[in-house]
Amino acid sequence: MRQVKLERKGCLAWVKIAYRDRLCLLNTPLLNELYDAFVEADRDDEVKAVILTSEGDNFCAGADLNELMRSDFESGLRWQSAYRRLVELIRETGKPVIAGIRGVCVAAGHELVMMCDLVVAGKSARLGQPEIAVGSTALGGGVQLLPLIIGEKRARELLFTAKLLTAQEAYELGLVNRVVEDNEVEREAEKLALEVVERASPQAFRVVKSCLKFWTDLAMLNWQLARDITAMIWTTEEFKQRSKNFLEKKKTPPQKFTGITPK
What we know:
single chain, alpha/beta, 3-stranded mixed β-sheet, 9 strands
């Protein structure tokens, strides 16, 4: 059963995550399907912009912990590689990519949205990087892009506390462009996409997007190191236990924070 739908409406391509009744979790097959859909939209000369959204009440709850808990170092690297090629295509395509989100949009799901050019959020949206609570990292883009978008101190608070933002809070911090009623998300995303493609010169858009990408490229310089460290963390007992507790809705007991000063 396919997890992603690619639909065309005029000059727009809609990449829809087809989860209606349950939370979307980014497993490797879903990452591959999303990549294939974006490749098809990117290569279609009739498509001028791409809108990424979901069919259900939530956008994405991040990586599939059940898959990651079973991973060894090599399979963790493969997950990271599947994710990386998807976000790099979103960042590099010469077509505008607009995300339309509702409900849960956290962890790798939120990182995916940050890679898009513009974001429309429904009022129910909750955004953030809670990976630290399960012993993982936000090194798929959260650690790199949040300080660039909202400032270092605010990024530290979000990353350290695992706090989730409301749509309005995310708007005020600059993480989303527009906040609308949930039932208006698709319509507003379409409106925003058309505002771009009906006014912008395609070649000028590509140049401007490429130059803006320079700043995020600087933030992503540590990507290979971040990939390897995160894949290694996913093999640790601490990650597996905290993830198990999270999935079973159990509280993890307080643990020690260690210093580095030689004794």
